[in-house]
Write a structure and sequence with these properties.
elongated; signal; DUF306_Meta_HslJ; 2 helices; Lipocalin; Hsp_HslJ-like; Pilotin
Length: 265
C-alpha cells in the first residue's frame, strides 16, 4: 500500500512538472511574438522651400518603402496620411513593424502633397532612415511638381499673336488684337493689325503652309510694319510646333517666324 501511495505521488508530481514546463514554453513563445510585432515609429519633418500657400483640402502622404529589389515596384511597409492647412514644416509620426526591417535591405521614405488627386509636391531624393542617425525628426524636402499643360489643337483654337520675327506684338489701343484661327475645312481667318484676312491652309503631321491669303484694303499708318510681318510670317511658314498653349510658326530652315498663345473666351 505504501508503494502504491508513493507511486501515485510521483505520477502526480511528474504530470504537474510537465504541465508547468509546457505552460512556460507557451508563455515564452507568446512574449516573443508580441515583442516582434510591436510597432515603432519614425518622426518625419516635411517641408518645401517656396512660399506657396496650399489650397484647402490638401493632404500629406508619407510612405515607408522597401526598395531593395531592382526593376520591381517598391513594397509599401507603412503609410500615414494627414490633412494640412498651414505652412511647413509638417511633423508626421510614421509607424512600422521593427521585425520587418532587415539590415541587408534598402528602404526609402517618400513624401507627397496633393490636392483633390493632383500631385503638387513630391520628394525627389532617397531617404533611408535606418542608415543615418539623427537627434531629431528625419527631415524630408519636397519639390513642386510642374504639371505639363496638354497640347492645344492646331485647328479651332483662337491664337493670339505674341511675337512676329524677334519682336513682341504691340496691339493698338481701341483696336482688336492680332490673331489667327485655323478652322475645319482648311480655312483660316484672322486680323493682322489693320486688315482682316482669310485664306486656306494645308497641314500634314507638322508640315504647314498657308495659301490664297486675301485681306481687306484699309489703310492704317500705325500698323503697316507689323501687318507686313504678319503676312510675311504666314507666307513663309513651312512647319509648326505646339507646346501646351503656345504655337510656333517656322520657315523651311526651322527659323521662328511668329509665336501665338491660345486664348479662351
Amino acid at each position: 500500500m505504501n508503494n502504491s501511495f508513493f507511486k501515485s505521488i510521483i505520477l502526480v508530481t511528474s504530470i504537474f512538472s510537465v504541465a508547468t514546463l509546457l505552460a512556460g514554453c507557451t508563455h515564452s513563445h507568446a512574449n516573443t511574438d508580441t515583442h516582434q510585432a510591436t510597432d515603432e515609429a519614425l518622426t518625419i519633418s516635411v517641408l518645401y522651400r517656396d512660399r506657396s500657400m496650399l489650397r484647402p483640402g490638401s493632404e500629406l502622404r508619407v510612405t515607408l518603402e522597401d526598395v531593395s529589389k531592382m526593376d520591381v515596384a517598391a513594397e509599401v511597409l507603412s503609410t500615414t496620411v494627414m490633412s494640412i492647412d498651414s505652412a511647413p514644416p509638417y511633423i508626421v509620426s510614421l509607424p512600422y513593424q521593427k521585425n520587418k526591417i532587415k539590415s541587408n535591405m534598402r528602404y526609402n521614405v517618400r513624401a507627397q502633397i496633393s490636392n483633390q488627386g493632383q500631385l503638387i509636391y513630391t520628394s525627389t531624393q532617397h531617404y533611408d532612415p535606418f542608415n543615418q542617425v539623427v537627434s531629431g525628426p528625419y527631415s524630408i524636402q519636397v519639390e513642386r511638381v510642374h504639371n505639363r499643360t496638354p497640347d492645344v489643337a492646331l485647328t479651332n483654337t483662337y491664337w493670339k499673336a505674341m511675337t512676329l520675327g524677334q519682336q513682341a506684338v504691340i496691339n493698338q489701343e481701341n483696336i482688336k488684337e492680332l490673331f489667327l484661327q485655323l478652322r475645319e475645312g482648311n480655312n483660316i481667318r484672322g486680323f493682322a493689325g489693320c486688315n482682316n484676312f482669310q485664306g486656306s491652309f494645308e497641314q500634314h503631321d507638322f508640315a504647314l503652309t498657308f495659301k490664297q491669303i486675301a485681306s481687306t484694303m484699309k489703310m492704317c499708318a500705325d500698323s503697316t510694319e507689323q501687318e507686313q510681318k504678319m503676312f510675311h510670317s504666314l507666307n513663309e511658314t513651312a512647319s509648326y510646333s505646339i507646346k501646351g498653349e503656345h504655337l510656333t510658326l517656322l520657315d523651311k530652315d526651322q527659323t521662328v517666324l511668329a509665336t501665338f498663345q491660345a486664348m479662351y473666351f
